């Protein structure tokens, strides 16, 4: 399915990393690398802040696959796949490659922001590029066209925003631009080279029993129309390149155009993703030399199935790659996280990574608190199922969320990434006639599509408390307690034993926590395509009922 170009080790032989960094080859590379895609190098000024040597990983915690990164002046922007969740396609901002803030989405209101509301699901592989001449940031992305059945419905759209307004404005959608009538198109990428703009993509041949190739075609300056004829770049032609080729990015280094690409299964517990690199001196020739030491990145003792990323040049002329991988301590329950490493040049002139990055982000960095009584609008971290409209809500003495019986009886759901596999979910709920509470959301077992939401959680109402589960497709009450609750009640879910145990608690005002129910949980069963679980709030009922929340908290341990 998806992924982007990753990088990693290969063989450094007896040459040390420090030696490589100080070598003439590395200096030349630092001066000539343009980045994965459009030229992202900017003229540096004396007040640019150099990047410290100690990076923090994961750079983008939680379910952030297929990341893309650019630099505009002193500021870095990143994006990632959102799969079957809205809003579509994250936009993160950083000034140091360590601290990232979610500032926007390409489509904040989901499909309603897309041209003719064309996208239905499969929101994959967003790719940012900066056009300095236009001062615009473009976002290439994949979605499934609601008007087209099967694999041909996978199409690549392009949206844009003025670079100065990326934090405040919506992107303008050009709609689907790259279309493959037979097997569909995914993983679009852009390279500006020798005065022309080229779009690259993968025909999703593995999805319809045919070969998958990386293709190239010139595109116009407004990114609304492909020009001339498309041409083949390369496919999975070597024994190690299992199954498919995808997630290719492109950059220039010296006299070569390089491509990093991924092969194999990307996205579930059985993944075997690997990354290779190839190069050519002439894009028009279609002749590519693949590195003799491929794959240059594969699973190691810390990260599983790394790949599908892009490269950026920092203000102090260092090269960094942002790609995705599963944290081996979390299996696939958290999803593919954004990982950043510094890129160096091997003694043979090929780009490599040190392949020794460790997860070193403090768990306290991953905690989250939302005081709804202070909010005037919804925090950007909250998500809802991609095929649904944005839930109705208001902020009056807290968050008032419209009730429903959607999602196989689960109700209206707002969730966000989980970032570890041992954590507490808590909320303060204003008790009324509506069942309102907290929930761990995943996918219905054997669902028709990965975004068919299921969950397990606890709600409170005037009737008391209920622990529920609808992961098997039917809403089932596991435990109920008819009890008089205070005006505001606290609810807690404790996820423990690496996601294998859940315990439910409640607390009336002025009282102690009371354990209501405890159950084993088969976390591996309800997490398709490695998308990761969501922790959030849920309101079950009928319009015009609303659930009312004072606060929400996730604490990781």
TrEMBL record:
Residues the record marks as site: Important for catalytic activity, responsible for pKa modulation of the active site Glu and correct orientation of both the proton donor and substrate: 187
Keywords from the named record: Glycosidase, Hydrolase
InterPro entries per the UniProt record, alphabetical: ConA-like_dom_sf, GH43_C2, Glyco_hydro_43, Glyco_hydro_beta-prop_sf, Glycosyl_Hydrlase_43
Residues at the catalytic site: 66, 246
Keyword Hydrolase: yes
GO biological process, one term: carbohydrate metabolic process
One Pfam family named in its UniProt record: GH43_C2
Bilayer-crossing regions: none
GO molecular function, one term: hydrolase activity, hydrolyzing O-glycosyl compounds
Annotated protein name in UniProt: Family 43 glycosylhydrolase
Organism (species): Pedobacter endophyticus
């Amino acid at each position: 399915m998806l992924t982007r170009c990753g990088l990693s080790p290969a063989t450094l032989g007896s040459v040390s990393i420090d030696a490589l960094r100080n070598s003439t080859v590395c200096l030349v590379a630092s001066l000539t690398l343009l980045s994965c895609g459009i030229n992202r190098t900017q003229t540096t000024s004396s007040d640019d802040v150099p990047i410290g040597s100690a990076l923090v990983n994961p750079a983008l915690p939680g379910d952030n696959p297929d990341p893309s990164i650019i630099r505009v002046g002193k500021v870095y922007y990143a994006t990632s796949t959102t799969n079957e969740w809205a809003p579509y396609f994250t936009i993160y901002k950083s000034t140091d490659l360590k601290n990232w803030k979610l500032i926007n989405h390409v489509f904040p209101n989901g499909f309603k922001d897309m041209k003719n509301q064309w996208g239905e699901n499969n929101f994959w592989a967003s790719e940012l590029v900066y056009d300095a001449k236009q001062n615009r940031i473009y976002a290439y992305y994949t979605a499934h066209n609601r008007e087209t059945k099967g694999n041909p419905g996978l199409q690549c759209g392009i949206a844009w925003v003025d670079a100065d307004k990326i934090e405040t404005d919506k992107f303008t959608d050009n709609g689907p631009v790259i279309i493959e009538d037979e097997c569909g198109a995914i993983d679009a990428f852009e390279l500006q080279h020798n005065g022309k703009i080229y779009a690259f993509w993968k025909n999703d041949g593995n999805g319809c029993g045919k070969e998958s190739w990386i293709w190239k075609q010139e595109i116009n300056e407004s990114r609304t129309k492909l020009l001339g004829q498309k041409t083949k770049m390369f496919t999975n032609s070597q024994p190690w390149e299992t199954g498919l080729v995808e997630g290719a990015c492109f950059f220039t280094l010296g006299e070569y155009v390089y491509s990093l690409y991924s092969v194999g299964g990307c996205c579930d517990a059985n993944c075997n993703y690997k990354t290779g690199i190839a190069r050519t001196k002439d894009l028009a020739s279609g002749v590519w030399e693949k590195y003799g030491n491929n794959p240059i990145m594969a699973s190691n003792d810390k990260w599983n199935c790394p790949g599908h990323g892009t490269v950026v040049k920092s203000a102090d002329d260092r090269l960094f790659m942002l790609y995705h991988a599963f944290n081996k301590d979390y299996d696939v329950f958290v999803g593919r996280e954004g990982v950043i490493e510094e890129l160096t040049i091997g003694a043979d002139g090929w780009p490599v990574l040190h392949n020794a990055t460790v997860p070193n982000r403090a768990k306290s960095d991953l905690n989250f608190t939302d005081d709804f009584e202070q909010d005037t609008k919804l925090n950007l971290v909250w998500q809802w199922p991609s095929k649904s409209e944005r839930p109705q809500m208001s902020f009056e003495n807290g968050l008032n969320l419209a009730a429903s019986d959607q999602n196989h009886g689960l109700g209206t759901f707002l969730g966000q990434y989980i970032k570890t596999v041992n954590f507490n979910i808590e909320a303060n709920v204003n008790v009324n006639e509506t069942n309102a509470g907290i929930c761990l959301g995943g996918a219905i077992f054997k669902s028709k599509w990965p975004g068919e939401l299921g969950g397990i959680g606890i709600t409170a109402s005037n009737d008391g408390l209920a622990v529920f589960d609808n992961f098997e497709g039917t809403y089932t009450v596991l435990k109920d307690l008819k009890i008089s609750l205070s005006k505001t009640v606290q609810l807690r879910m404790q996820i423990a034993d690496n996601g294998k145990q859940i315990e439910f608690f409640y607390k009336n005002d002025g009282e102690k926590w009371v354990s209501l129910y405890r159950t084993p949980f088969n976390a591996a069963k309800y997490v398709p395509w490695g998308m990761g679980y969501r922790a959030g709030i849920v309101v079950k009922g009928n319009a015009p009922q609303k659930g009312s929340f004072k606060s929400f908290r996730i604490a990781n341990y």
